[in-house]
Amino acid sequence: MTMLRVAARFRDYSPSNVLLIAAQRPDATRVGGIRTWNSLGRHVLKGEHGIAILAPCVYRTRDDDAGPREDVADVAAPGNEPQPSARAPQGDEETAARRVLRGFKIVHVFDISQTDGQPLPTVDPTHLDGDAPQPLMEHLTALTAEAGYRLERGPCRGANGYTDFATRVVRVIDTASPAQFVKTLAHELGHIRADHEHRFTNYTTSLRCRGQVEIEAESIAYLVTARAGLDASAYSVPHLAG
């Protein structure tokens, strides 16, 4: 829960602000305003210069039959900027008429390296180290073959593993520890056993499909490894949260 609370604080920045952050501080990793850092128990170090980004000035317009329209400024918080080209969804014209983008103002954010205080819990999945239960490894390997798939070890295009339904190949990265190998193999078998090949034909192009298949496969992997006495929560919980 702590990891999820921290992850919720660090929202995505617009492409323009990502470029501004990279130009001013190429080594930046986690960026937030002073209030964000203070809410996480950290403070900006004395003498640090902020990273200048653009925050949209959105106005809420109020129409009153008895008098002129009044505009109220509403500057978006850093990391929660609406895109200038964003349009209200159909059927929401009334809301769109009451919120108008009138420009941008400069605000300053700070990288975590410019702050001090309470350490942040890790948000990224932690790869498993150590050995795996040998019977589990043998059983999952046998199930892969029984399902008609060839098991390979090698590069995985930036992933820990993948399943190729067309060629009937399951590949796990060759640098994985035995524990991570077993967890990843259970994940790939989860894709096979849950019939993702036929249930989610838009997997490669739909984020909604990808989200659901990953939740299913990683949940299966967590249940299988936990039943065998291997705790995969350091990887599975952050992975599912993402």
- Backbone structural class: alpha+beta
Overall number of domains = 2
Task: Give the low-pLDDT segments.
Answer: 65-72, 82-93
Strand order of the largest sheet: 1-5-3-4
- What is the succession of H and E elements? HHEHEEEHEEHEEEHHHH
Categorize the overall geometry.
Answer: elongated
Walk me through this protein's architecture.
The chain has nine helices and nine strands. The chain has 242 residues and is of the alpha+beta class. About 8% of the residues have low confidence.
Furnish the topology, listing elements before pairings.
Elements: H1 2-9, H2 15-24, E1 31-32, H3 34-39, E2 42-44, E3 51-62, E4 70-75, H4 93-98, E5 99-111, E6 115-117, H5 134-146, E7 150-153, E8 161-164, E9 169-172, H6 178-193, H7 196-199, H8 207-227, H9 233-241
Parallel strand pairs: 7-9
Antiparallel strand pairs: 1-5, 2-6, 3-4, 3-5, 8-9
Helix pairs in contact: 5-6, 6-8, 8-9
